[in-house]
Design brief:
This protein is an alpha/beta fold. The protein has 17 helices and 14 strands. The relative contact order is 0.12.
């Protein structure tokens, strides 16, 4: 079967779908991933066909000077990229016999399902993406659905922003009638598109009100390629002293990150810990002189690095949080936007790290105290280690592939 996966966003949004694609390919399917052009080399490194789409989401994020959603910037991105990108998606998907799409990919994906009338699957990587089911409700730090009018209004405004371009595409390219201005998320429930939820029930269990077409599979982890080799100076740094603390903020790019290096270096010094600063899309650890006890890294696979660390300090992105859970090490979360406060809350409630520190309240002293708590509280370390064992015993990709097969029409 020819399966096309539409996955857009940061690397943390896309990486789980590369893992799923590999699982589907191993099961005998022909898999294509449709994603941003700058991720195609990454996808191809894992042996999957990639169809590039001409949209530069990183540039949009880097243009923002503060956390949150910049609606004018998103509108400019839509006007610049969306028309061409939608046509590229259609060209990449028109021979598909089944579609899988992530949260961002659902926006074009549902229109393609209507046109192609093929089996479809929604992949979710965190509970915050269930806003389509809860209607403007989002999970708070305690894991309870609460009304969040601000994010609901932003979501609707963004969909209205795209509606004209999408309906033009539907009419001219797909030969379909116009879709609702406020989006088509209602089709997910109307069509009962299976939702494959890529997280462990040990982290957030299935709630009683969720329908039977919601499935918790366990995480879709993607290990580093067999050909990857760590930089020798990183290997030397790890061997030169006790296990260090990781500090990284992945796809967060705005200026608050760029100005945090000094606080973080001071916090590591106060905690008397060595550190590895991972820059990701930010300038964390760049353009400054670092002490010998701190190593500045570019991209290092978490599955290789995290088991060699003591604590992970991060923004609470779903991918980094999951990697720390899997490695069995405590987290110190500095959450910025969207689902990050939720994951900070889960870390605290699961007892695998201290309470999150809002970025504007971050000081070297607070960071040092949080790191010391994660390092010295034996109950935190034990809970983190036990959680890691449970997650490592799961095979989320295998479970997702099995569910995929079960929902195919010929499987009865």
């Amino acid at each position: 079967m020819h399966i096309t996966i539409l996955a857009f966003g940061t690397r943390g949004d896309i990486q789980p779908f590369v893992a799923l694609g590999r699982g589907l390919q191993a099961a005998g399917h022909i898999v294509r991933v449709v994603t941003q052009a700058d991720f195609c080399a990454f996808v191809s490194d894992y042996g999957l066909d990639c169809a590039p789409v001409s949209v530069d989401l990183r540039a949009a994020w880097e243009a923002q000077k503060k956390p949150g959603v910049d609606l004018p910037a998103m509108y400019r991105v839509a006007r610049q990229y969306l028309g061409r990108a939608l046509n590229e998606m259609w060209a990449a998907c028109n021979a598909a016999e089944a579609l899988v799409f992530n949260y961002m990919g659902r926006i074009p994906g549902l229109h393609l399902v209507e046109k192609l009338r093929v089996p479809a699957y929604l992949g979710l990587i965190h509970p915050h993406q269930m806003d389509f089911f809860y209607h403007w409700r989002y999970f708070n730090n305690a894991g309870q659905p609460v009304i969040n009018v601000k994010e609901g209004v932003i979501d609707r405004l963004m969909q209205i922003t795209y509606a004209g371009l999408i309906n033009q595409w539907r009419r001219k390219t797909l030969n379909l009638r116009p879709a609702p201005l406020v989006g088509n998320d209602g089709w997910l429930a109307e069509w009962k598109i299976p939702a494959l939820c890529s997280w462990s029930p040990a982290i957030f269990p299935k709630l009683p009100e969720w329908p039977d077409w919601f499935h918790l599979t366990g995480y879709w982890f993607l290990d580093h390629p067999a050909t990857w080799q760590p930089p020798q100076d990183l290997v030397d740094f790890l061997a030169a002293g006790p296990p260090p603390v990781y500090v990284g903020f992945s796809g967060v790019t705005h200026l608050e990150i760029e100005n945090m290096t000094e606080i973080i270096v001071q916090g590591l010094a106060l905690a008397q810990q060595r550190g590895i600063l991972a820059s990701g899309w930010s300038d964390l650890g760049k353009h400054v002189a670092l002490p010998e006890t701190v190593y500045a890294a570019e991209a290092v696979p978490h599955d290789w690095l995290f088991p060699q660390l003591t604590v992970a300090v991060h923004h609470g992105g779903v991918g980094t949080t999951a990697a720390a859970f899997r490695a069995g090490i405590p987290s110190v979360v500095i959450p910025f936007v969207v689902d990050e406060p939720f994951w900070a809350g889960r870390v605290e409630q699961l007892g695998v790290g201290p309470a999150g520190i809002p970025p504007r309240q971050l000081t070297a002293e607070r960071l040092a105290a949080a790191i010391q708590t994660a390092l010295n509280d034996n109950s935190v370390k034990m809970r983190a280690a036990n959680l890691g064992k449970r997650i490592r015993a799961e095979d989320g990709v295998a479970r997702a592939v099995k569910l995929f097969q079960q929902y195919l029409p010929h499987s009865g």
